[in-house]
Design goal:
Number of domains: 2
Largest sheet: 5 strands, mixed, barrel
Helix content: 25-40%
Number of strands: 17
Shape: globular
CATH topology of the largest domain: Spore Coat Polysaccharide Biosynthesis Protein SpsA, Chain A
Number of helices: 11
Structural class: alpha/beta
Order of helices and strands: EHEHEHEEHEEEHEHHHHEEHEEEEEEH
Distance between the termini: 37 Å
Length: 360
């Protein structure tokens, strides 16, 4: 199976640490290495180097070369421009279909945190087996532990089978980023899991799904596949830029025939590290006696349950803060209550609208 690490995202909810020129997957948020490096290293002991690909945009190619110089240029799939996950994943499928259209591939986000890597790899190997035997799209979904309007939800049905300690369920449907009240309902229902974006299928089947459920995108992918075969870079570029900007969830997953998908219940410890609130939750073991989580230089009085993310050469001082997020960078400072960091994306959009691109 080919592993495809998706590293073209913008990570706007992690502003001001995550920027257009250096999104969060290229920064060291937990530990000393970047999230991309950590993601890549999860696979090196179980998959040969020529089976591990990175999908990104031209803007980040040099950054990836610096972080992962061991990755061959042939294993970096560069999109002509950023056009969301449907175009990016379809483009990867087109590329890999020219190598082997029936070789399973797994799409892996570059900015997720996995606690039990050994268990995670076991689930991927089982998914590969099922794809080869049954031809289904496989997805790994995670048991949610709190309601979130920032994640997709997968509804599971009856147990399809349990093999080698891996539970595989029928797929009943997908809802992408519901309202917070709906997310609470899904948690209470018990048959909804977090969709963690681990899509697995063959390139041929993936392209076929585009043809059935998103023909307006497939027509361009079909031309791109031929152009890649003919080394026609101009046609690849022009066709790619015509594809709709839409996520794979909206373009394909929400429309798919339920019988074509199976869901593996993920039990390896997972977080998408999607907002500052989520990061706070992941670092609770590092909290001080007042439940503060600190990065960089800080001094405080009467400060409790805060995430303070500063720098080594500048001190952050706080008085009388409770349950807040403070993120200090060289040219931007974010202060917001815990529970509101989901709205950071709105601030980024406002900065763009107000013509303050230098802070993006």
């Amino acid at each position: 199976m080919n592993i495809v690490i998706l590293a073209g995202g913008s990570g706007t909810r992690f502003w001001p640490l995550s920027r257009q020129t250096k999104p969060k997957q290229f920064t060291s948020i937990i530990g000393k290495r970047s999230m991309l490096e950590c993601t890549y290293e999860r696979f090196v002991n179980d998959y040969p180097a020529n089976k591990i690909f990175i999908s990104t945009t031209q803007a980040f190619k040099n950054t990836i070369n610096k972080l992962l110089p061991q990755v061959s240029a042939d294993n970096i799939i560069v999109e002509p421009e950023k056009r969301d996950t449907a175009a990016a994943m379809g483009y990867v499928a087109a590329h890999l279909s020219l190598q082997d259209p029936e070789e399973p591939m797994a799409f892996i986000p570059s900015d997720h945190y996995i606690f039990n890597v050994k268990r995670f790899i076991k689930l991927l190997k089982k998914a590969e087996e099922v794809i080869k035997k049954e031809g289904k799209m496989m997805d790994i979904a995670v048991v949610p532990n709190f309601p979130s309007a920032a994640l997709g939800y997968t509804q599971i049905g009856n147990l399809h089978k349990k093999e080698d300690g891996v539970e595989i369920y029928k797929f009943l449907g997908h809802v992408e980023k519901p309202s917070f009240s709906k997310a609470k309902e899904y948690i209470q229902a018990g048959d909804y899991l977090w969709h963690a974006n681990f899509f697995m299928w063959t390139p041929h089947a993936f392209l076929d799904a585009f043809q059935r459920y998103a023909p307006h995108i497939y027509q361009h992918l079909e031309r791109i596949t031929k152009a890649l075969k003919d080394d026609d870079d101009y046609l690849v570029d022009s066709e790619y830029r015509k594809m709709q900007k839409i996520s794979i969830d909206y373009a394909i997953l929400e429309k798919m025939n339920k019988d074509d998908v199976l869901i593996i219940k993920g039990d390896f410890g997972w977080s998408d590290i999607g907002t500052w609130d989520v990061l706070h939750d992941q670092l609770t073991a590092e909290a001080d006696e007042n439940d503060n989580i600190i990065r960089g230089e800080w001094v405080g009085d009467d400060t409790t349950k805060c995430l303070i993310y500063g720098r080594e050469n500048k001190i952050v001082a706080t008085i009388g803060l409770d349950d807040m997020v403070v993120v200090d960078t060289e040219d931007a400072l974010l202060i917001c209550p815990q529970g509101r960091s989901q709205d950071v994306k709105k601030l980024v959009e406002k900065l763009e609208k107000d013509g303050k691109e230098k802070y993006l």
